[in-house]
Amino acid sequence: MSSEKYDLTISRTMRATRNQLWQAWSDPNILSQWWCPKPWSVKDVLIELKPGGAFNTTMCGPDGEEIPGEGCIVYAKEKECIVFTDCMTAGWRPSGESFMTAVITMEDCDGGVRYSATVRHKNSEDTKKHNDMGFQEGWGKTLEQLEDIARDL
Q1: What is the number of domains present in the chain?
Q2: Long-range contacts from 69-76, C-beta under 8 angstroms, 24+ separation
Q3: Is the pTM value of this prediction over 0.85?
Q4: Could you give the 3-state DSSP secondary structure of residue 9?
Q5: 96 vs 80, higher pLDDT
Q6: Which of 9, 68, 86, 138 has the fewest CB atoms within 10 Å, i.e. the most exposed one?
Q7: Buried b (16+ CB within 10 A) or exposed e, 70-105
Q8: How far apart (Å, rounded) are the C-alpha atoms in residues 91 and 71?
Q9: Cα(104)–Cα(106) distance, integer angstroms
């Protein structure tokens, strides 16, 4: 049985450079401006783009909701690829819960940078849950926000 059926993917050609996109990912103050679709916002960003580094955020909803997230950077190759997961926290510490692992890639192409996000889940229930949460719309909106911010860097 192929586990690829548990993947959700979104890709676009961004009108920003890989340098700009990397800066938007690596600076917590910039990442907080695009990480979740507005009217949601992000606070308490900690991102260490190295294997075993922290990737922590708190997403804040318009009605006062707060969703903390702790994760771990699995792999990072500057201006090319970032892999992070919530099955571990910083220092490779198991989190006890897991929902996804995301693989972000950036490749030069005609017209800009091909930016792709593949989010892998452990089973069909988690894949469906993430899809039902509005994966395409939510991640699509964040890509628009990322591109707008990155182009101005």
Answers
A1: 1
A2: 70/95, 71/95, 73/47, 73/48, 73/49, 74/101, 75/51, 76/49, 76/50, 76/51
A3: yes
A4: strand
A5: 80
A6: 68
A7: bbbbbebeebeebbbbbbbbbeeeeeeeebbbbbbb
A8: 10
A9: 7
pLDDT digits (tens, 9 = 90+) for 112-148: 999 999 999 999 999 999 999 999 999 999 999 999 9
DSSP 25: H
What one-letter code names the amino acid at 62? P
Count of CB atoms situated within 10 Å of the CB of 20:
21
Taking only the tens place, the pLDDT of each residue in 10-45 is: 999 999 999 999 999 999 999 999 999 999 999 999
Adjacency order of strands within the sheet including 81-85: 7-14, 112-120, 101-109, 81-85, 66-77, 54-60, 41-47
Supply the CATH number for residue 118's domain: 3.30.530.20
Asked if residue 99 belongs to a domain, the reply is yes
